[in-house]
Amino acid sequence: MENTIKVERAILSLTQDDLAKRIGVSRQTINSIEANRYVPSTVLALKLSEVFGKPVNDFFKLSEND
């Protein structure tokens, strides 16, 4: 899975810590998601969707390997 979380976060001028606090996770979790080391749960993806004001498919995409 690929994502544009870092870009979406930058658009809103949020640090990893800011975003983490908004959705109730650690900064390390945001870092792992951005680095494609962790695939978030549906609940987490929906919380990100609320923060970014966009559908989940706008910032998460399936890769050829998925």
UniProtKB/TrEMBL annotation:
Coiled coil: none annotated. It holds the Pfam family HTH_3. Residues 5-59 form the HTH cro/C1-type domain. PROSITE patterns: HTH_CROC1 (PS50943). One of its GO terms (molecular function) is DNA binding. Gene3D superfamilies: lambda repressor-like DNA-binding domains (1.10.260.40). Keywords: DNA-binding. Signal peptide: none annotated. This is Transcriptional regulator, PBSX family. It comes from Winogradskyella psychrotolerans RS-3.
